[in-house]
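Journal club prep — side note

Before the paper discussion, L.F. wants everyone to see what a predicted structure for a comparable chain looks like in token form. Sequence:
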Amino acid sequence: MAINHLKIKSFRNHKDRHFSFNKALTVIFGDNGSGKTSILEAIHLLSVGKSFKTSKKSELIKKGEDQLILNGLFSKNKIETSVSTLINRKKKQKIKINGKELFKRKDLLGINSVVVLSPEEQKITKGSAKERRFFFDKLFSITSNKYLSFLQQYTKTLKQRNFVLKSNQDIKKVKTNLNVWNETLIEKGLKLWRERALNIKVFNKIFLETATEYDKDINLELNYNEQNLDKNEYTKIIKERAERDFFSRRTSFGPHLDDMIFLWNKKNIRMYGSEGENKTLLIILKLSELKYIKKTTGQQPILLLDDLFATIDLKRSKKTISMLKKIKEDKNDLLQIIITTTDLLNLEKTDLNFKSSNEETIELRR
């Protein structure tokens, strides 16, 4: 899978630009503020319908403009797919594939998969449980329509139940109304829990193998407290928490509160990990994401590396490049990598060969 061409109009600080990408490696270099990360952000937006930097669509539109337009030409198995998106100041977004409009963003997921390794992604290891759930939900949704369906069904029911909790001050009426949603919530919750546990089991195996390949002396673990409840046990807990939910105005038990905890030498890395350990974990996590997508879909995603070598030391950089080279050695399964950097000399020290005729270099200026 690869992106061949990208057209940007009124996106971030880009007025009207066109970029072409090599199917193997493209290096985008320039000063800070020249718009390097925006190119990766545009590719991500065309792939999953959202930015990896912000949830506020209005921030993406160039100042003084009414709307942005992105067009990307992707290729997979020698078949080209055109994807375009338009976002206006009213936060309305239109997505088209080969000229046909999509009415649901979920229909875009999985068509052109991308993996992003960016400083913004460090929130997965350092942030709240919500950030880790989002990482895994996104990954499993782009690789499994079944998971995506279960997640959407549960989320929709959860919102409806929470609306009941917020809509009335009479606890008796609320409890009565909750009964309408409890059974559906429990049914959807059990399905999501089971599917999440199955996917995490597959991911965890890849994750541990990748950690060992990266550094055999690293002791990493991924802990997920799988809920093995049956319907009766789940129902009992939901009913017992009805009063608590009424006063907190939210559902206090279910898959939406799961956490996936990373341990480094048996300690929670979010609480006790050093800066270097967190950066190393993120690299291993993203390499695992890359392998997981390939294993579950049969297709290599596009790898977007955002100023990676400015934030990690040379040793970690060389290890990362070494592992990526092993993946790229398979001529029948090409991995497209697009890298941003402010310093080509730093990039050269990592042993990444970006000066051959098979690579593309793009220079951006403010």
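L.F.'s comment for the group: Residues 171-214 form the longest helix (44 residues). Keep this in mind when we get to the figures.
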